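name: query_chain
kind: protein
chains: 1
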Amino acid sequence: MKSNNKIGLKVRGFFSRTFSRIFSSSQSPGLALSAMVVLTGILMVIPVIYIAVRSFDNGSQRWLELLDTRIPFLLEKTLSLTLAVTLLGLLIGVILAILVVNTNLPGRRIWRWLLVIPLTIPPYVGAVSYIILLGPSGWVEGWFGSTIDVFSFPIVVLILTGFTYPYIYLIVSASLQKINPSFEEAGYISGLSPLGVIRKVTIPMVRPAIGSGAILVALYIVSDFGAVAMLRYPTFTQAIYFQMGSFDRVGASIFSLILILITLVFLYLQYLSKRRMKFYQIDGTSKEPVLIDLGKWKTPALLFVGTVFGLFAAIPIAVLLYWSGIAVASGVIDSRFFQFTMNSFTAAAITSALCLVFALPLIYVKTRFSSVLSRMVDVISYLSYALPGVIVALGVIFIFINYLPFMYGTIAMLIMAYMMRFLPQSLQSTESSMGQVSPKIDEAALSLGRRPVQVLNQVILRLIQPGMIASFSLVFVSVIKELPATLLLRPAGFDTLSVRVWIETSDGFYAMAAPSALLIIIISILPIRWVMNKY
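structure:
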Protein backbone atom coordinates (compact mmCIF):
# COMPACT_ATOMS: atom_id res chain seq x y z
CA MET A 1 0.00 0.00 0.00
CA LYS A 2 2.83 2.38 0.90
CA SER A 3 4.59 1.43 -2.32
CA ASN A 4 1.52 2.38 -4.35
CA ASN A 5 1.29 5.73 -2.54
CA LYS A 6 4.95 6.45 -3.31
CA ILE A 7 4.44 5.62 -6.97
CA GLY A 8 1.40 7.90 -7.09
CA LEU A 9 3.32 10.76 -5.47
CA LYS A 10 6.20 10.32 -7.93
CA VAL A 11 3.83 10.37 -10.93
CA ARG A 12 2.09 13.45 -9.58
CA GLY A 13 5.40 15.13 -8.94
CA PHE A 14 6.59 14.36 -12.46
CA PHE A 15 3.54 15.94 -14.05
CA SER A 16 3.67 18.94 -11.70
CA ARG A 17 7.31 19.62 -12.65
CA THR A 18 6.44 19.20 -16.32
CA PHE A 19 3.60 21.73 -16.17
CA SER A 20 5.81 24.11 -14.16
CA ARG A 21 8.24 24.17 -17.06
CA ILE A 22 5.42 24.76 -19.56
CA PHE A 23 3.86 27.75 -17.80
CA SER A 24 5.63 31.08 -17.81
CA SER A 25 4.84 32.01 -14.21
CA SER A 26 6.92 30.88 -11.26
CA GLN A 27 4.13 28.57 -10.13
CA SER A 28 2.14 26.14 -12.27
CA PRO A 29 -1.66 25.92 -12.01
CA GLY A 30 -1.41 22.32 -10.80
CA LEU A 31 -2.18 18.99 -12.35
CA ALA A 32 -6.00 19.18 -12.20
CA LEU A 33 -6.34 22.57 -13.90
CA SER A 34 -3.61 21.78 -16.43
CA ALA A 35 -5.33 18.51 -17.36
CA MET A 36 -8.63 20.35 -17.91
CA VAL A 37 -6.90 22.83 -20.22
CA VAL A 38 -5.31 20.03 -22.25
CA LEU A 39 -8.61 18.13 -22.43
CA THR A 40 -10.38 21.26 -23.65
CA GLY A 41 -7.76 21.74 -26.35
CA ILE A 42 -8.13 18.15 -27.56
CA LEU A 43 -11.93 18.44 -27.66
CA MET A 44 -11.97 21.73 -29.57
CA VAL A 45 -9.31 20.85 -32.13
CA ILE A 46 -11.23 17.85 -33.54
CA PRO A 47 -13.23 19.68 -36.26
CA VAL A 48 -10.20 21.79 -37.18
CA ILE A 49 -8.08 18.69 -37.82
CA TYR A 50 -10.94 17.11 -39.78
CA ILE A 51 -11.23 20.18 -42.02
CA ALA A 52 -7.48 20.53 -42.53
CA VAL A 53 -7.18 16.89 -43.63
CA ARG A 54 -10.23 16.92 -45.89
CA SER A 55 -9.38 20.25 -47.55
CA PHE A 56 -6.10 18.89 -48.93
CA ASP A 57 -7.44 15.51 -50.07
CA ASN A 58 -7.24 16.42 -53.76
CA GLY A 59 -4.03 18.41 -53.67
CA SER A 60 -3.80 22.00 -54.96
CA GLN A 61 -6.00 21.65 -58.04
CA ARG A 62 -9.30 22.12 -56.16
CA TRP A 63 -7.85 25.12 -54.32
CA LEU A 64 -6.83 26.78 -57.60
CA GLU A 65 -10.29 26.22 -59.07
CA LEU A 66 -12.04 27.87 -56.13
CA LEU A 67 -9.50 30.70 -55.83
CA ASP A 68 -10.19 31.63 -59.43
CA THR A 69 -13.95 31.61 -59.04
CA ARG A 70 -15.89 31.49 -55.78
CA ILE A 71 -13.50 32.37 -52.96
CA PRO A 72 -12.89 36.11 -53.77
CA PHE A 73 -16.61 36.73 -54.26
CA LEU A 74 -17.62 34.93 -51.06
CA LEU A 75 -14.83 36.58 -49.09
CA GLU A 76 -16.02 40.05 -50.06
CA LYS A 77 -19.66 39.25 -49.31
CA THR A 78 -18.95 37.55 -45.97
CA LEU A 79 -16.55 40.19 -44.64
CA SER A 80 -18.70 43.15 -45.70
CA LEU A 81 -21.75 41.65 -43.97
CA THR A 82 -19.77 40.76 -40.84
CA LEU A 83 -18.17 44.21 -40.55
CA ALA A 84 -21.45 46.08 -41.11
CA VAL A 85 -23.44 43.99 -38.61
CA THR A 86 -20.69 44.14 -35.97
CA LEU A 87 -20.29 47.92 -36.18
CA LEU A 88 -24.03 48.55 -36.11
CA GLY A 89 -24.43 46.04 -33.30
CA LEU A 90 -21.72 47.81 -31.28
CA LEU A 91 -23.44 51.14 -31.75
CA ILE A 92 -26.85 49.84 -30.70
CA GLY A 93 -25.68 47.47 -27.94
CA VAL A 94 -23.33 49.88 -26.13
CA ILE A 95 -25.76 52.81 -26.29
CA LEU A 96 -28.60 50.66 -24.93
CA ALA A 97 -26.42 49.27 -22.12
CA ILE A 98 -25.38 52.76 -21.02
CA LEU A 99 -28.94 54.10 -21.20
CA VAL A 100 -30.35 51.24 -19.14
CA VAL A 101 -27.58 50.98 -16.52
CA ASN A 102 -26.14 54.50 -16.19
CA THR A 103 -29.04 56.88 -16.82
CA ASN A 104 -32.45 57.72 -15.37
CA LEU A 105 -34.25 56.28 -18.40
CA PRO A 106 -37.94 55.84 -17.47
CA GLY A 107 -38.76 52.19 -16.85
CA ARG A 108 -35.10 51.20 -17.14
CA ARG A 109 -35.54 48.12 -14.93
CA ILE A 110 -38.13 46.76 -17.35
CA TRP A 111 -36.19 47.76 -20.47
CA ARG A 112 -33.19 46.05 -18.94
CA TRP A 113 -34.47 42.58 -19.83
CA LEU A 114 -36.96 43.46 -22.59
CA LEU A 115 -34.05 44.54 -24.78
CA VAL A 116 -32.54 41.06 -24.51
CA ILE A 117 -35.63 39.37 -25.97
CA PRO A 118 -34.33 39.54 -29.59
CA LEU A 119 -31.55 37.19 -28.47
CA THR A 120 -34.21 34.54 -27.85
CA ILE A 121 -35.53 34.78 -31.42
CA PRO A 122 -33.58 32.59 -33.87
CA PRO A 123 -32.31 34.82 -36.70
CA TYR A 124 -33.86 32.52 -39.29
CA VAL A 125 -37.23 32.93 -37.56
CA GLY A 126 -36.74 36.69 -37.51
CA ALA A 127 -35.82 36.62 -41.19
CA VAL A 128 -38.97 34.67 -42.03
CA SER A 129 -41.05 37.17 -40.04
CA TYR A 130 -39.71 40.06 -42.07
CA ILE A 131 -40.13 38.19 -45.34
CA ILE A 132 -43.78 37.66 -44.42
CA LEU A 133 -44.05 41.33 -43.49
CA LEU A 134 -42.02 43.04 -46.23
CA GLY A 135 -41.49 40.48 -48.98
CA PRO A 136 -43.46 39.79 -52.14
CA SER A 137 -47.14 39.16 -51.35
CA GLY A 138 -46.36 40.20 -47.78
CA TRP A 139 -48.41 42.23 -45.35
CA VAL A 140 -46.89 45.59 -46.36
CA GLU A 141 -47.76 44.97 -50.01
CA GLY A 142 -51.28 44.07 -49.01
CA TRP A 143 -51.65 47.21 -46.90
CA PHE A 144 -49.89 49.81 -49.07
CA GLY A 145 -49.64 48.20 -52.49
CA SER A 146 -45.81 48.34 -52.56
CA THR A 147 -42.95 46.20 -51.21
CA ILE A 148 -39.54 46.78 -49.70
CA ASP A 149 -36.62 44.78 -51.06
CA VAL A 150 -36.09 42.59 -48.00
CA PHE A 151 -33.19 40.83 -49.76
CA SER A 152 -31.11 44.02 -50.22
CA PHE A 153 -27.84 44.45 -48.33
CA PRO A 154 -29.03 47.24 -45.94
CA ILE A 155 -32.13 45.28 -44.91
CA VAL A 156 -30.12 42.08 -44.43
CA VAL A 157 -27.66 44.00 -42.22
CA LEU A 158 -30.49 45.56 -40.21
CA ILE A 159 -32.27 42.23 -39.65
CA LEU A 160 -29.12 40.36 -38.59
CA THR A 161 -28.06 43.24 -36.32
CA GLY A 162 -31.43 43.22 -34.63
CA PHE A 163 -31.07 39.61 -33.52
CA THR A 164 -27.38 39.73 -32.56
CA TYR A 165 -26.87 43.09 -30.78
CA PRO A 166 -28.03 41.50 -27.45
CA TYR A 167 -24.70 39.63 -27.30
CA ILE A 168 -23.01 42.99 -26.91
CA TYR A 169 -25.75 44.53 -24.79
CA LEU A 170 -25.84 41.68 -22.26
CA ILE A 171 -22.07 41.42 -21.76
CA VAL A 172 -21.53 45.20 -21.58
CA SER A 173 -24.43 45.56 -19.13
CA ALA A 174 -22.88 42.93 -16.86
CA SER A 175 -19.56 44.81 -16.85
CA LEU A 176 -21.23 48.16 -16.22
CA GLN A 177 -22.89 46.65 -13.15
CA LYS A 178 -19.47 45.65 -11.79
CA ILE A 179 -17.85 49.09 -12.11
CA ASN A 180 -17.13 50.75 -8.79
CA PRO A 181 -19.07 54.09 -8.83
CA SER A 182 -16.10 55.76 -7.12
CA PHE A 183 -14.29 55.87 -10.46
CA GLU A 184 -17.11 57.76 -12.14
CA GLU A 185 -17.54 60.03 -9.11
CA ALA A 186 -13.85 60.91 -9.39
CA GLY A 187 -14.48 61.92 -12.99
CA TYR A 188 -17.29 64.26 -11.98
CA ILE A 189 -15.15 65.77 -9.21
CA SER A 190 -12.38 66.46 -11.73
CA GLY A 191 -14.84 68.53 -13.79
CA LEU A 192 -15.88 66.09 -16.50
CA SER A 193 -19.37 66.32 -17.97
CA PRO A 194 -21.61 63.22 -17.96
CA LEU A 195 -20.67 62.57 -21.59
CA GLY A 196 -17.01 63.06 -20.69
CA VAL A 197 -17.27 60.53 -17.84
CA ILE A 198 -18.81 57.99 -20.21
CA ARG A 199 -16.14 58.59 -22.84
CA LYS A 200 -13.06 58.79 -20.57
CA VAL A 201 -14.01 56.56 -17.62
CA THR A 202 -16.91 54.20 -18.33
CA ILE A 203 -16.11 53.12 -21.89
CA PRO A 204 -12.41 52.37 -21.20
CA MET A 205 -13.33 50.25 -18.17
CA VAL A 206 -15.77 48.10 -20.12
CA ARG A 207 -13.59 47.90 -23.23
CA PRO A 208 -12.83 44.17 -22.65
CA ALA A 209 -16.58 43.48 -22.50
CA ILE A 210 -17.18 45.53 -25.66
CA GLY A 211 -14.50 43.55 -27.44
CA SER A 212 -15.92 40.28 -26.16
CA GLY A 213 -19.40 41.14 -27.42
CA ALA A 214 -18.09 42.33 -30.79
CA ILE A 215 -16.11 39.14 -31.39
CA LEU A 216 -19.16 37.02 -30.53
CA VAL A 217 -21.28 38.93 -33.05
CA ALA A 218 -18.60 38.76 -35.74
CA LEU A 219 -18.06 35.04 -35.29
CA TYR A 220 -21.79 34.40 -35.26
CA ILE A 221 -22.33 36.23 -38.55
CA VAL A 222 -19.41 34.42 -40.15
CA SER A 223 -20.92 31.05 -39.23
CA ASP A 224 -24.65 31.77 -39.61
CA PHE A 225 -26.57 29.80 -42.19
CA GLY A 226 -30.30 29.92 -41.49
CA ALA A 227 -30.87 33.69 -41.74
CA VAL A 228 -28.60 34.31 -44.73
CA ALA A 229 -30.19 31.36 -46.52
CA MET A 230 -33.67 32.77 -45.92
CA LEU A 231 -32.54 36.25 -47.02
CA ARG A 232 -30.69 34.86 -50.07
CA TYR A 233 -27.40 36.52 -49.18
CA PRO A 234 -24.32 34.61 -50.46
CA THR A 235 -21.72 33.78 -47.80
CA PHE A 236 -19.23 31.01 -47.13
CA THR A 237 -21.80 29.14 -45.05
CA GLN A 238 -24.25 29.03 -47.94
CA ALA A 239 -21.47 27.82 -50.23
CA ILE A 240 -20.51 25.12 -47.72
CA TYR A 241 -24.05 23.79 -47.56
CA PHE A 242 -24.28 23.85 -51.34
CA GLN A 243 -21.04 21.86 -51.61
CA MET A 244 -22.30 19.38 -49.01
CA GLY A 245 -25.53 18.98 -50.96
CA SER A 246 -23.44 18.22 -54.04
CA PHE A 247 -21.40 15.67 -52.01
CA ASP A 248 -18.29 17.83 -52.49
CA ARG A 249 -16.82 17.54 -49.00
CA VAL A 250 -13.42 18.73 -50.19
CA GLY A 251 -14.87 22.01 -51.44
CA ALA A 252 -16.88 22.42 -48.23
CA SER A 253 -13.74 21.79 -46.16
CA ILE A 254 -11.78 24.38 -48.16
CA PHE A 255 -14.43 27.02 -47.50
CA SER A 256 -14.48 26.03 -43.81
CA LEU A 257 -10.70 26.33 -43.59
CA ILE A 258 -11.00 29.90 -44.88
CA LEU A 259 -13.55 30.59 -42.14
CA ILE A 260 -10.98 29.38 -39.61
CA LEU A 261 -8.42 31.81 -41.03
CA ILE A 262 -10.94 34.65 -40.79
CA THR A 263 -11.57 33.68 -37.17
CA LEU A 264 -7.85 33.78 -36.41
CA VAL A 265 -7.68 37.31 -37.79
CA PHE A 266 -10.60 38.42 -35.58
CA LEU A 267 -9.02 36.85 -32.51
CA TYR A 268 -5.69 38.50 -33.22
CA LEU A 269 -7.36 41.91 -33.53
CA GLN A 270 -9.11 41.32 -30.19
CA TYR A 271 -5.79 40.34 -28.62
CA LEU A 272 -4.19 43.58 -29.84
CA SER A 273 -7.05 45.65 -28.42
CA LYS A 274 -6.84 43.95 -25.02
CA ARG A 275 -3.10 44.59 -24.78
CA ARG A 276 -3.60 48.34 -24.97
CA MET A 277 -5.42 48.83 -21.70
CA LYS A 278 -6.55 46.82 -18.67
CA PHE A 279 -8.43 47.83 -15.54
CA TYR A 280 -8.72 45.89 -12.28
CA GLN A 281 -10.95 46.43 -9.29
CA ILE A 282 -9.94 45.20 -5.88
CA ASP A 283 -13.54 44.47 -4.97
CA GLY A 284 -17.06 45.38 -5.81
CA THR A 285 -19.26 47.84 -4.01
CA SER A 286 -22.81 47.98 -2.72
CA LYS A 287 -22.94 51.70 -3.50
CA GLU A 288 -25.55 52.72 -6.08
CA PRO A 289 -24.10 54.36 -9.21
CA VAL A 290 -24.75 58.04 -9.88
CA LEU A 291 -27.37 58.04 -12.63
CA ILE A 292 -27.02 60.53 -15.47
CA ASP A 293 -30.00 62.85 -15.83
CA LEU A 294 -31.12 62.66 -19.46
CA GLY A 295 -33.07 65.90 -19.22
CA LYS A 296 -34.31 66.98 -22.66
CA TRP A 297 -32.84 63.79 -24.15
CA LYS A 298 -35.25 61.59 -22.20
CA THR A 299 -37.88 61.49 -24.98
CA PRO A 300 -35.38 60.74 -27.81
CA ALA A 301 -33.80 58.05 -25.63
CA LEU A 302 -37.18 56.42 -24.99
CA LEU A 303 -37.98 56.64 -28.70
CA PHE A 304 -34.69 54.93 -29.58
CA VAL A 305 -35.17 52.15 -27.02
CA GLY A 306 -38.78 51.61 -28.02
CA THR A 307 -37.92 51.50 -31.73
CA VAL A 308 -35.26 48.83 -31.19
CA PHE A 309 -37.63 46.74 -29.10
CA GLY A 310 -40.50 47.19 -31.55
CA LEU A 311 -38.49 46.28 -34.65
CA PHE A 312 -36.66 43.26 -33.27
CA ALA A 313 -39.00 41.88 -30.60
CA ALA A 314 -42.57 43.11 -30.90
CA ILE A 315 -42.97 42.76 -34.67
CA PRO A 316 -41.53 39.22 -35.00
CA ILE A 317 -43.50 38.05 -31.98
CA ALA A 318 -46.68 39.61 -33.39
CA VAL A 319 -46.17 37.70 -36.65
CA LEU A 320 -45.64 34.45 -34.73
CA LEU A 321 -48.71 35.08 -32.58
CA TYR A 322 -50.80 35.59 -35.71
CA TRP A 323 -49.70 32.28 -37.22
CA SER A 324 -49.94 30.51 -33.87
CA GLY A 325 -53.55 31.66 -33.62
CA ILE A 326 -54.21 30.02 -36.97
CA ALA A 327 -52.48 26.86 -35.70
CA VAL A 328 -54.65 26.73 -32.57
CA ALA A 329 -57.78 27.23 -34.64
CA SER A 330 -56.66 24.44 -36.97
CA GLY A 331 -55.96 22.05 -34.09
CA VAL A 332 -52.34 21.29 -35.09
CA ILE A 333 -50.94 21.72 -31.55
CA ASP A 334 -50.67 18.40 -29.72
CA SER A 335 -48.55 16.59 -27.12
CA ARG A 336 -45.57 16.46 -29.48
CA PHE A 337 -44.76 20.07 -28.69
CA PHE A 338 -44.20 19.21 -25.02
CA GLN A 339 -41.73 16.51 -26.05
CA PHE A 340 -39.93 18.94 -28.36
CA THR A 341 -39.72 21.37 -25.45
CA MET A 342 -38.26 18.80 -23.05
CA ASN A 343 -35.69 17.66 -25.61
CA SER A 344 -34.54 21.23 -26.24
CA PHE A 345 -34.45 22.09 -22.53
CA THR A 346 -32.47 18.98 -21.59
CA ALA A 347 -29.82 19.43 -24.28
CA ALA A 348 -29.44 23.16 -23.53
CA ALA A 349 -29.11 22.74 -19.76
CA ILE A 350 -26.50 19.96 -19.99
CA THR A 351 -24.44 21.85 -22.57
CA SER A 352 -24.52 25.14 -20.64
CA ALA A 353 -23.28 23.48 -17.46
CA LEU A 354 -20.52 21.55 -19.26
CA CYS A 355 -19.34 24.69 -21.06
CA LEU A 356 -18.89 26.41 -17.70
CA VAL A 357 -16.97 23.41 -16.35
CA PHE A 358 -14.55 23.57 -19.28
CA ALA A 359 -14.39 27.37 -19.63
CA LEU A 360 -13.57 28.33 -16.04
CA PRO A 361 -10.28 26.38 -15.70
CA LEU A 362 -9.10 27.60 -19.12
CA ILE A 363 -9.84 31.27 -18.41
CA TYR A 364 -8.29 31.09 -14.95
CA VAL A 365 -5.13 29.41 -16.23
CA LYS A 366 -4.90 31.77 -19.20
CA THR A 367 -5.20 34.94 -17.11
CA ARG A 368 -3.19 33.86 -14.07
CA PHE A 369 -0.70 31.28 -15.39
CA SER A 370 -0.29 32.38 -18.98
CA SER A 371 1.72 30.12 -21.27
CA VAL A 372 2.02 29.08 -24.88
CA LEU A 373 -0.18 26.08 -24.08
CA SER A 374 -3.02 28.06 -22.47
CA ARG A 375 -2.97 30.71 -25.21
CA MET A 376 -2.95 28.05 -27.91
CA VAL A 377 -5.92 26.21 -26.37
CA ASP A 378 -7.75 29.53 -26.02
CA VAL A 379 -7.34 30.30 -29.73
CA ILE A 380 -8.28 26.75 -30.76
CA SER A 381 -11.42 26.99 -28.65
CA TYR A 382 -12.76 29.83 -30.80
CA LEU A 383 -12.24 28.14 -34.14
CA SER A 384 -15.24 25.81 -33.99
CA TYR A 385 -17.53 28.77 -33.28
CA ALA A 386 -16.84 30.16 -36.76
CA LEU A 387 -17.56 26.84 -38.45
CA PRO A 388 -21.02 25.94 -39.71
CA GLY A 389 -22.73 23.39 -37.50
CA VAL A 390 -22.68 20.76 -40.24
CA ILE A 391 -18.86 20.79 -40.43
CA VAL A 392 -18.57 20.49 -36.65
CA ALA A 393 -21.09 17.66 -36.80
CA LEU A 394 -19.06 15.83 -39.45
CA GLY A 395 -15.99 16.06 -37.24
CA VAL A 396 -17.97 14.62 -34.33
CA ILE A 397 -19.29 11.79 -36.53
CA PHE A 398 -15.74 10.97 -37.62
CA ILE A 399 -14.57 10.68 -33.98
CA PHE A 400 -17.51 8.58 -32.78
CA ILE A 401 -17.46 6.20 -35.75
CA ASN A 402 -13.73 5.55 -35.47
CA TYR A 403 -13.09 5.75 -31.72
CA LEU A 404 -16.41 5.65 -29.83
CA PRO A 405 -18.70 3.43 -31.93
CA PHE A 406 -20.62 2.22 -28.86
CA MET A 407 -21.87 5.81 -28.32
CA TYR A 408 -22.75 6.51 -31.94
CA GLY A 409 -26.31 7.71 -32.39
CA THR A 410 -26.68 8.88 -28.77
CA ILE A 411 -27.30 12.33 -27.35
CA ALA A 412 -23.60 12.46 -26.39
CA MET A 413 -22.74 13.27 -30.02
CA LEU A 414 -25.16 16.18 -30.02
CA ILE A 415 -23.88 17.54 -26.68
CA MET A 416 -20.28 17.32 -27.88
CA ALA A 417 -21.10 19.29 -31.06
CA TYR A 418 -22.95 21.92 -29.00
CA MET A 419 -19.93 22.32 -26.72
CA MET A 420 -17.58 22.74 -29.68
CA ARG A 421 -19.88 25.39 -31.13
CA PHE A 422 -20.70 27.41 -28.04
CA LEU A 423 -17.79 27.09 -25.62
CA PRO A 424 -16.45 30.46 -26.94
CA GLN A 425 -19.58 32.18 -25.66
CA SER A 426 -18.85 30.84 -22.20
CA LEU A 427 -15.20 31.86 -22.49
CA GLN A 428 -16.05 35.43 -23.51
CA SER A 429 -18.60 35.96 -20.74
CA THR A 430 -16.43 34.58 -17.94
CA GLU A 431 -13.25 36.28 -19.19
CA SER A 432 -14.86 39.72 -19.17
CA SER A 433 -15.74 39.22 -15.48
CA MET A 434 -12.36 37.66 -14.67
CA GLY A 435 -10.67 40.72 -16.16
CA GLN A 436 -12.16 42.88 -13.40
CA VAL A 437 -10.76 40.72 -10.58
CA SER A 438 -7.31 41.83 -9.48
CA PRO A 439 -4.57 39.14 -9.54
CA LYS A 440 -3.54 40.36 -6.08
CA ILE A 441 -6.52 38.47 -4.66
CA ASP A 442 -5.17 35.23 -6.12
CA GLU A 443 -1.67 35.98 -4.87
CA ALA A 444 -2.97 36.55 -1.35
CA ALA A 445 -4.83 33.23 -1.35
CA LEU A 446 -1.83 31.35 -2.79
CA SER A 447 0.46 32.89 -0.16
CA LEU A 448 -1.84 31.45 2.52
CA GLY A 449 -1.22 27.95 1.23
CA ARG A 450 -4.19 27.47 -1.04
CA ARG A 451 -3.66 25.48 -4.25
CA PRO A 452 -4.72 27.11 -7.56
CA VAL A 453 -7.73 24.82 -7.93
CA GLN A 454 -8.84 25.81 -4.41
CA VAL A 455 -8.42 29.51 -5.23
CA LEU A 456 -10.62 29.06 -8.29
CA ASN A 457 -13.33 27.18 -6.36
CA GLN A 458 -13.31 29.15 -3.12
CA VAL A 459 -12.47 32.70 -4.25
CA ILE A 460 -12.76 33.39 -7.95
CA LEU A 461 -16.13 31.72 -8.53
CA ARG A 462 -17.75 33.95 -5.92
CA LEU A 463 -16.39 37.11 -7.55
CA ILE A 464 -17.41 36.34 -11.13
CA GLN A 465 -20.95 35.07 -10.58
CA PRO A 466 -22.55 37.65 -12.92
CA GLY A 467 -20.27 36.50 -15.73
CA MET A 468 -21.04 32.85 -14.98
CA ILE A 469 -24.78 33.52 -15.07
CA ALA A 470 -24.42 35.41 -18.35
CA SER A 471 -22.32 32.53 -19.69
CA PHE A 472 -24.91 29.89 -18.78
CA SER A 473 -27.73 31.95 -20.29
CA LEU A 474 -25.93 32.76 -23.54
CA VAL A 475 -25.07 29.11 -24.15
CA PHE A 476 -28.54 27.93 -23.11
CA VAL A 477 -30.28 30.27 -25.54
CA SER A 478 -27.84 29.44 -28.35
CA VAL A 479 -28.37 25.69 -27.95
CA ILE A 480 -32.14 26.13 -27.99
CA LYS A 481 -31.81 27.90 -31.36
CA GLU A 482 -29.06 25.73 -32.90
CA LEU A 483 -30.20 24.07 -36.09
CA PRO A 484 -27.60 22.51 -38.49
CA ALA A 485 -25.75 20.31 -36.00
CA THR A 486 -29.06 19.25 -34.47
CA LEU A 487 -30.44 18.18 -37.84
CA LEU A 488 -27.43 15.96 -38.49
CA LEU A 489 -26.66 14.54 -35.04
CA ARG A 490 -29.95 14.22 -33.16
CA PRO A 491 -30.79 10.65 -32.10
CA ALA A 492 -33.77 8.97 -33.70
CA GLY A 493 -36.94 10.52 -32.37
CA PHE A 494 -35.09 13.37 -30.63
CA ASP A 495 -36.63 16.30 -32.48
CA THR A 496 -36.11 19.73 -30.95
CA LEU A 497 -38.10 22.93 -31.35
CA SER A 498 -35.58 24.40 -33.79
CA VAL A 499 -35.75 21.30 -36.00
CA ARG A 500 -39.52 21.51 -36.21
CA VAL A 501 -39.43 25.24 -36.97
CA TRP A 502 -36.99 24.69 -39.84
CA ILE A 503 -38.86 21.75 -41.33
CA GLU A 504 -42.25 23.42 -41.25
CA THR A 505 -40.95 26.81 -42.41
CA SER A 506 -39.04 25.27 -45.32
CA ASP A 507 -42.29 23.67 -46.49
CA GLY A 508 -44.15 26.98 -46.12
CA PHE A 509 -46.33 25.73 -43.24
CA TYR A 510 -46.01 28.89 -41.12
CA ALA A 511 -48.98 28.00 -38.94
CA MET A 512 -47.30 24.74 -37.89
CA ALA A 513 -43.90 26.37 -37.38
CA ALA A 514 -45.09 29.36 -35.35
CA PRO A 515 -45.99 27.51 -32.09
CA SER A 516 -42.54 25.88 -31.90
CA ALA A 517 -40.90 29.24 -32.60
CA LEU A 518 -42.91 30.86 -29.82
CA LEU A 519 -41.92 28.09 -27.42
CA ILE A 520 -38.24 28.73 -28.24
CA ILE A 521 -38.74 32.38 -27.33
CA ILE A 522 -40.61 31.58 -24.11
CA ILE A 523 -38.04 29.02 -22.94
CA SER A 524 -35.20 31.38 -23.76
CA ILE A 525 -36.81 34.36 -22.03
CA LEU A 526 -36.91 32.60 -18.65
CA PRO A 527 -33.13 32.34 -18.07
CA ILE A 528 -32.59 35.78 -19.58
CA ARG A 529 -35.12 37.27 -17.16
CA TRP A 530 -33.38 35.49 -14.29
CA VAL A 531 -30.01 36.84 -15.40
CA MET A 532 -31.22 40.41 -15.46
CA ASN A 533 -32.76 40.04 -12.00
CA LYS A 534 -29.42 38.83 -10.63
CA TYR A 535 -27.51 41.92 -11.81
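note: The chain is about 75% helix and 0% strand.
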